[in-house]
Amino acid sequence: MMIPDIKIIKSLSDEFELADSKQNDFMKHLSRAINYLIQNDFSRLVQILYRMDISESKLKEMLAVNKGQDAGLIIGQLLIEREQQKILSREKFKPEDDIPENEKW
Fold first, then answer.
1. Which pLDDT value is given to residue 52?
2. CB under 8 Å to 26, separation ≥6 — which residues?
3. Other C-beta atoms within 10 Å of 24: how many?
4. What distance in Å separates the CA atoms of residue 87 and residue 101, rounded to the nearest whole number?
5. Which helix (H) or strand (E) is 49 found in, with range?
6. Are 5 and 46 a contacting pair, CB within 8 Å?
7. Based on the number of CB atoms within 10 Å of its own CB, is 34 exposed (0-12), middle (13-18) or buried (19 or more)?
8. Half-sphere exposure of 61 (CA within 13 A, CB side)
9. Quick one: how far is CA 70 from the chain centroid?
10. Cβ-contact 3, 80 below 8 angstroms
11. pLDDT band at 55 (very low <50, low <70, confident <90, very high)
12. Does pLDDT of 3 surpass 90?
């Protein structure tokens, strides 16, 4: 199981209203929060997954392949993977700041 970086922990902690947790405890807290939403507020979980752009087909596939395993952990891993993809994409398409000062708007 991967340990996410601080940016991802902060983002997902805010999204799932988690208290500050250490990197090595984060997945346990995240999966617990996800499992709580599965049982008590499924529509909120669906909204979060939609907003965070989690692929429905990939989610269904991962849950089917890992049948009998902790759904909170599986969904948590998908969320972390997606957040990592977003970070890489932002870095890749980050605008360059090497424009001379007199040419900036």
1. 93
2. 3, 4, 9, 12, 13, 18
3. 9
4. 27
5. helix 42-51
6. no
7. buried
8. 6
9. 17
10. no
11. very high
12. no
DSSP 54: -
Q: Which of 1-5, 71-75, 84-88 ranks highest by mean pLDDT? A: 71-75
What distance in Å separates the CA atoms of residue 36 and residue 94, rounded to the nearest whole number?
Answer: 36
Amino acid at 98: D
pLDDT at position 75 over 60: yes
Distance CA 88, CA 74 (A): 21
* Residues 6+ positions from 52 with CB-CB distance below 8 Å: 15, 79, 82, 83
The answer to whether 27 touches 76, Cβ cutoff 8 Å, is: yes
Select from 29, 1, 35, 3 the least CA-distant residue to 14: 29
| The residue type at 99 | I
The closest of 21, 14, 30 to 74, measured between CA atoms, is 30
H-helix or E-strand spanning residue 86: helix 71-92
